[in-house]
Amino acid sequence: MRLSRNTWIDFAFALRHPWVRAGLASAAAALAILLLVVFAYWRPAYDRYAALAGRVESLRKDLVGAMRDEALARTYDKTRKDIVRLEKKLDAESGQAALVDNVTNLARKSHVSVISESYEEGHEDSGYVPLFQVIALEGGYDDIRQFLSGVQRLPTWTVVRETRLERMHHSRAIKAILTLVTYRKASKQIGS
User: How many CA atoms lie within 13 A of 66 on its CB side?
Assistant: First the structure.
């Protein structure tokens, strides 16, 4: 942007007025004060703020890392205990007779009646031999639910593979047909 000669002449003429000179002096003083504030106060304060924010971010990352490590250690410890518990369940006596006793005791504690049971031995897979059990139970809804939650507390590694519920005719009782699978180590002597 280039100013014409007339503009410079107008500017020089305006400088003769005392209020224009005072305004320019005030503007120059304000600019000097602003630069002084920026370089003497604001810039060091900003640098201290940036350093503090960087330190806080570093401490936050360290805290998050420590919390993650603690959660990982808890998960590892729980998993290690679960592995030990599952190994004990896999080593437990889990032949057909032992399984019948375990399920019968659980049914009695849960106040459900065992209507029928059938067993089938599965094929070895990855070092484990499954024993399939189809069991029909009769009882109240809460009793059936108590039985289902008790399956995981059996001394063997037994899981519920399938559940089918039916209402009994003219009764408040429920008939549950469950497929349970009990896993055993293949090298373990399987009793009957």
Answer: 6
